[in-house]
Design brief:
alpha/beta, eight-stranded parallel barrel, five-stranded antiparallel beta sheet, about 25% helix
Length: about 525
């Protein structure tokens, strides 16, 4: 089990060690770093990762880009004072990575750095005349002085354009230098995870796959050598090299991923990530086949679905909360497809954070007990099945038919269950947590599962079908329609669902969520 700490959650979220409401404390405190480690020390969690911001501005005592020098450049370039609690802590002599490593080792947990290789967050603001001081951890001199390294030239603000083109050796070399510095400064570090998800665009579209693979393997090989040299220098054991990769096989080309070649270049484990939203539709089986001797972890997150309702910020969306049943069923499917373990990302963000908080409440403490609950495939064998697929409010009008495929590992006994659809109006699809569902009949619908037409049944009167402490993100019970799923109908693997809008309300409804509930024979 691996737990990722993105650092910024420590002060962005209201927690037992950060009591602030909307005002961040002026300076990060060492004890807050240590507390963020300790809360995730649970049976089954073998390693913790920490992300030093976006890996553009060093959050370590760097000689390549000293933080005081960077902040002075930021002041001169943008005419505004940098405003980050983490920077103030570092400039006062604090050491985020050193404290993290020390606290992990005090708790017998491996400590790794998750290094974001091509993060595009906030870079769209690089050439703005005015920026807030809080983006001083992202906007940086190297990026500003080399716009030619981008995949797409300014003024494009698209994520795919604003990240760096890894065909340019100087762009890669900058990251290599920073990683070399981290490995040198922290001899007690247990390893590095190369986060290729932030963000997964590295090459011009016409770049041949063989070239992509060669470039990435060269980069991976250099970092592998850094870690081996550190092990030899300190007369210590193996240091791990991981890769955070997309959950969809179709995106392997974007990052030049050939699993076997990467493994031979030095990757020890693959962390299969949906980036932000929990999903049960993964490439774990394909990855296991392509890299049979690699360790594979499937990433679990705090939410399977988000939607905007008007807020302008990155986090100003509301979101469905990942429940016990969602996490455990997703883990069980992952193990069935060949995963060795689970990883956790953004797990702190069940907590109060971001803007528009009243519209996104209520918040909760994260279910840290699930870090242990999903650590063993055997422990999950008797759990009920909760299979889901988020949909982006796809409009169905009268007579519309669409098909969907869900990867399912049926609950033990493959008993009868229920399939539900959440069907919402356009207004409801953009609603915040305070909104009341419209009082309308949801109309007549037909559902065919694996070639069998299902019989309609009552939806159960609950938006979420299991008891849960989470009260936000599920919508209203009246938005759900349900059908009976006969025992034995669910297949181990792909299950095809046809949905037909026989007679929806005038103007149609939007499909937001599909779920299948199946109790275990135990």
């Amino acid at each position: 089990m691996i737990y990722n700490n993105d650092t910024t959650n420590i002060l962005n979220c209201v927690s037992p060690y950060n009591k602030a409401s909307k005002e961040r404390p002026r300076m990060l405190a060492e004890e807050q770093i240590r507390a963020s480690v300790r809360e995730a020390v649970r049976p089954g969690v073998d390693a913790q990762l920490i992300s030093p911001a976006h890996s553009w501005v060093p959050w370590w005592p760097s000689k390549i880009i000293p933080l005081a020098e960077h902040e002075q450049w930021f002041r001169e370039r943008y005419g505004v004072e940098p405003d980050l609690s983490e920077h103030r802590y570092l400039l006062a002599g604090g050491d985020i990575l050193g404290v993290f490593i020390d606290e992990c080792h005090k708790n017998n947990v491996a400590a790794l750095i998750s290094f974001r290789c091509n993060d595009g967050h906030h870079q769209e603001r690089t050439w703005d005349e005015k920026v807030p001081g809080e983006v001083a951890h992202a906007l940086n001199r190297f990026y500003v002085e080399h716009p030619e390294y981008r995949l797409g030239p300014p003024p494009s603000r698209l994520m795919k354009d604003r990240v760096h083109n890894w065909l340019i050796p100087e762009a890669r070399a900058h990251k290599e230098r920073m990683l070399a510095e981290i490995v040198e400064i922290y001899p007690a570090l247990d390893g590095i995870e190369l986060d290729f998800l932030r963000h997964p665009y590295y090459f011009p579209d016409d770049t041949p796959m063989a070239v992509r693979v060669e470039v990435m393997c060269d980069f991976i090989g250099k970092i592998r050598i850094l870690l081996e040299q550190a092990s030899a220098k300190n007369n210590e054991g193996h240091r791990y090299l991981g890769a955070r990769i997309p959950v969809n096989e179709a995106e392997w080309r974007d990052i030049g991923l050939d699993p076997d070649a990467w493994r031979k270049a030095g990757i020890d484990y693959f962390n299969v990530s949906p980036s932000y939203r929990l999903t049960q539709q993964t490439n774990v089986a394909a990855l296991r086949q392509a890299a049979p001797d690699a360790r594979i972890y499937l990433e679990l997150t705090h939410t399977p679905q988000t939607w905007k309702f008007g807020g302008p910020g990155y986090d100003d969306h509301t979101y469905r909360r990942s429940t016990k049943e969602m996490l455990e069923t997703t883990a069980r499917i992952g193990y069935a497809r060949g995963a060795d373990g689970m990883s956790f990302f953004n797990f702190a963000y069940y907590r109060e954070h971001g803007g528009c908080r009243e519209q996104r409440r209520p918040f909760n403490e994260p279910p840290f007990e699930e870090l242990s609950a999903v650590a063993s495939s055997d422990a999950l064998a008797g759990a009920p099945g909760y299979f889901f697929q988020a949909q982006d409010n796809v409009l169905f009008v009268k007579g519309q038919k669409r098909g969907y495929t869900m990867d399912i590992a049926p609950a033990k006994g493959n008993k009868a269950g229920a399939l539900r659809l959440q069907l919402v109006t356009t207004a409801e699809s953009r609603a915040d947590e305070r909104a009341v569902p419209e009082k309308i009949a949801r109309g007549e619908w037909k559902v065919v599962l694996n070639g069998v037409e299902l019989k309609a049944t009552e939806a159960g009167g609950k938006a979420y079908p299991f008891p849960t402490p989470f009260k936000a993100g599920f919508g209203g019970a009246t938005q759900y329609l349900a059908w009976q799923v006969p025992a034995g109908l669910l297949a181990n693997g792909g299950n095809h669902i046809d949905i037909i809008a026989v007679n929806p309300p005038e103007g149609g409804l939007r499909l937001k969520w599909i779920d299948i509930i199946q109790n275990s024979s135990e």
